[in-house]
Amino acid sequence: MDFNLSEEHLGVQKMVREFAKKEIAPVIQEWDRKQEMAPFILPRMAELGILGINIPVRYGGQGFDYISLGLVCEELEAADTTLRVIMSVHMGLNSMALLQWGTEEQKQKFLVPQAKGEKIACFGLTEPGVGSDVAGMTSTAKKDGDEYVLNGEKMWISLATKADNALVVMRTDQDVEDPHDGLTAFMVEMDREGITTGDIKGKLGVRAGSTGWIAFQDVRVPESNRLGEEGEGFKIAMSCLDNGRYTVAAGATGLIRASLEASIAYANERKAFGREIGKFQLVQQKIAKMVQAYEMARLLYLKSGWMKNEGLRNTKETSQAKWFATDASFEAASEAIQVHGAYGFSDEYDVERYLRNSKGAVIYEGTSEVHQLMQAGYALGYRQDGALRCELPAFDAEFWQE
Amino acid sequence: MKIVVCVKQVPDSAAKVSVENGQVAWGDAPLVINPWDEYAVEAALVLGEANGGEVTAVSMGTESAKEALKHALAMGCQEAILVSDPALADADSQAAAQVLAAAVSKIGDADLVIFGKQAIDSDTGLTAAQTARVLGWPALTLAAAVSNLNLDAKTIRVERAMEEGRQIVDSKLPAVISIVKDYGEPRYPSFMGIRKASRAEIPAWSLSDLGIEAPAPVVSWLEIMNPPAREVTNEIIEGGSPEEVAAALADKIIAEKVL
Asked: Virtual CA dihedral for A378, A379, A380, A383, nearest 10 degrees?
């Protein structure tokens, strides 16, 4: 067993940390207040190669492993959650699905420009009336010759108004016995006729990000845009979540670290009753719990990343990592505000933003409640992961980098 | 075109540097590439890219200086060479200049040698000029821009940052230049560069590889001490109106001979 990060991992971590510190941290509060995404962020992340970090060089990416993706997400979310969200949808939920399920033609058409950052990608599963109950979705895709006609609405979609390509799951079959079997996945170019999008304002958190809706009205896509087989949509969506949740777990770990670092700095500086507040045991307890939460969250996501590298099925482990890290990040941010006292309650300090940003991830990509049901299901033997027709390919340095 | 960029490994600028038992200590703060040298690497890469040149990074230091060289490789330098020898433990800036000049000569055919304006640890800002002196090349220090580089005519024009403005200087090549911050933000290491750097085997040259004896230092540090701790007291001036507070503050400043 080796807990060391490689020299490459450390280099990636340092580079992304530097970028986040220099270019994001100084301006993020302003964009958070404006409730807008800073327009430079996506082109800059593309230029630096971050948007293709773990995709093989042959498909336009940077050829790093899945652990590097986790490290990138940790660094990005330590600056602001909205940056990690970009990686969750563009990479975890969309590009990695192409790597896993896409035909060679689809990889060339969609994955290559996405990995290069020339095209931005998003993911549409949730609907206005359907969240955890995925199989209850009402959006439809009807076969018409060698095309499908898409109708319906997807809601709470990160980058809905920014993305060029969306991976969406639609109902293709109303008559199947098990509604899970009637879903199909598609890659849809967002400039197709009949697509409208909008951003949602007034969110509690991730205000410097783009979260919106996509409406489909008789949107025609060619059969060649279908990802996987007809009826395979639910399995594909769940495999997307294995990757999306990994980025969420790693990012929430970064949020715990940010809460911890802010708390340490403040506890060493602020005095009460004639000494630094870090000298008080109840403040120490909060710091100690954040240290513990950070270490645990980090170990869980790195284990999940390692399993991906090895080509091992990691649905259970990724769910554990996501559940733990997001709950712990909410707790850490809340305690960081408590350490900061009244100042933490104002946006003069970053910690109030951390708390607002942490809450979304406790809800999306499987609520904490769903993850608890999953873990209980595994433990009690109610739940098993069957083999998939296409597994996420194990990391192979030679294949990735040549 | 061949460019050599000289870099130094120094304690992180965020480190708390202090003197312990007569030795400089920086706790467990990491060692990093001298921040000024990142500007030098940026300049070397820009000039190399524009003129089809190769950039070699050189550092004099212990084994740990390979980290600074790896950073330079990750930013895009083609090659890196460490010059390391136990006999250089007490080297001052002129000794470093002799060693770096010997390394530049051994690399051979360099058109430009680029330095950062100074290193943040010893802060002398002398090594670039001294290296130029040893090589017998022009020293173009504190360059904020390279506005012309003609490889056929073997000439260079740089803009030197002066307090009064910019001084434009023409010189022949080869030359030594030192770079200031105005040159432009150094790039981040690229992911491809990070991979290349992590796999690079960096050669280490000793003094005998360079064919020179250890240059005797002419500057030695007799004693190193912490700066005296400053007594700071706070006083808040109260008053009924801003005018009253300002008047009391002005009186106080004059009484304390601050102004």
From this structure: 10
Amino acid at A301: Y
Contact A49 B188 (CB under 8 A): no
Burial class (CB in 10 A: 0-12, 13-18, 19+), A300: buried
Q: Decide: B60 and B97 in contact? Cβ < 8 Å.
A: no
Return the residue in A4, A8, A45 with the most chain B beta carbons within 10 A, the one to mutate for interface testing.
A8
For helices B66-75 and B35-50, give the axis angle rounded to 10 degrees: 40
The residue from A365, A369, A398, A402 that is catalytic is: A365
Domain co-membership, A248 together with A286: yes
Q: What is the CATH number of the domain that holds A40?
A: 1.10.540.10
Partner-chain residue, chosen from A11, A18, A63, that has the shortest CB–CB distance to B197: A11
| ipTM of this complex | 0.88
Tokens 């490994």 belong to residue: B9
Nearest CA in chain A to B197: A8
A268/B contact by beta carbon, under 8 A? no
Cα distance between residue A127 and residue A189, in whole Å: 19
Boundary residue ending a domain (A69, A99, A120) = A120
State the total domains in chain A.
3
Q: Which two tokens stand for residue A26?
A: 């100084």
Q: Domain of residue A182: give its range.
A: 122-234
Collect all residues of chain A within an 8 Å Cβ-Cβ radius of residue B190.
48-49
A2 located within any domain: no
Helix (H, G, I), strand (E, B) or coil at B240: coil
Q: What is the pLDDT of residues A210-237, one digit of tens each?
A: 999 999 999 999 999 999 999 999 999 9
B interface with A, Cβ–Cβ below 8 Å: 70, 74, 188-192, 194-195, 197-198
Per-residue pLDDT tens over the stretch A358-370: 999 999 999 999 9
pTM: 0.91
Q: How far is B1 from chain A (nearest CA, A)?
A: 27
Say how many CA atoms lie within 13 Å of A233 toward its Cβ: 31
**Residue type at position A318:** T
Other C-beta atoms lying within 10 Å of the C-beta of residue A212: 20
Inform me whether the pLDDT recorded for B259 exceeds 80.
Answer: no
Q: How far is B9 from chain A (nearest CA, A)?
A: 17
Whether residue B12 contacts residue B32, with contact meaning beta carbons closer than 8 Å, is answered with yes
Q: Do residues A94 and A158 make contact, with C-beta atoms less than 8 angstroms apart?
A: no
Would you say residue A284 lies in a domain?
yes
A193 assigned to active site: no
Rounded to the nearest angstrom, the gap between the alpha carbon of residue B234 and the centroid of all alpha carbons in its chain is: 38
Please write the tens of the pLDDT for every residue from A2-58: 899 999 999 999 999 999 999 999 999 999 999 999 999 999 999 999 999 999 999
Residue B117's pLDDT band (cuts 50, 70, 90): very high
